[in-house]
Amino acid sequence: MLKFNFSNFSIECGTDEAGRGCLSGPVTAAAVILPKDFKNSILNDSKQVSEKKRDFLRPYIEEHALAYSVAHVFPETIDKINILNASLLAMHKAIETLKTKPEFIIVDGNRFKPFQDIPSKTIIKGDSKYLSIAAASILAKTYRDEYMKSIHDEFPMYQWNQNKGYPTKAHRLAIKEYGITEYHRKSFRLLPEQLKLEL
């Protein structure tokens, strides 16, 4: 069972990001504040939940949350400030646009930069321990996937509708064959030296 709160504050926000390890597209973060009576038996870390269930959970979370927000940080910024800073920036942007100001922030992972004067706590594997972080992981993942599907038609050869920008073999082969797009992260090692292709 996922826990509701980490702190003793009543307005606690969970935040998480998606797309950190991708070669293309934004890193996307979400922040979610859930009401005390929130219950959902299938909500879990987005990686443990099927795509069909994530698509079911997203409107459920949006309808029942006290507040939620999602923010993208795009490749141009990722290349300028690096992926860790871009992930933290996306979380800050998501928290900043919540319609309710949180009193405490719980963050998936082990890195966070203080946001304003709000106390926070990083929690390793927090998305499989706390409801609000799990909810944020679902929103971050579904909004990012939706964005990747929306740019797929522009460059169908990279198969972003399937790989969502992650470094699959097909994605790397397409980069080798067609080069990169404005959506690729130029600071990432897009084709590792060890990828020797016998064509």
Automatic annotation (TrEMBL):
Manganese or magnesium. Binds 1 divalent metal ion per monomer in the absence of substrate. May bind a second metal ion after substrate binding. GO terms for cellular component: cytoplasm; ribonuclease H2 complex. GO terms for biological process: DNA replication, removal of RNA primer; mismatch repair. Its cofactor is Mn(2+); Mg(2+). CDD domains: RNase_HII_bacteria_HII_like. It catalyses: Endonucleolytic cleavage to 5'-phosphomonoester. PROSITE patterns: RNASE_H_2 (PS51975). HAMAP family: RNase_HII_B. Belongs to the RNase HII family. PANTHER family: RIBONUCLEASE H2 SUBUNIT A, RIBONUCLEASE HII. This is Ribonuclease HII.
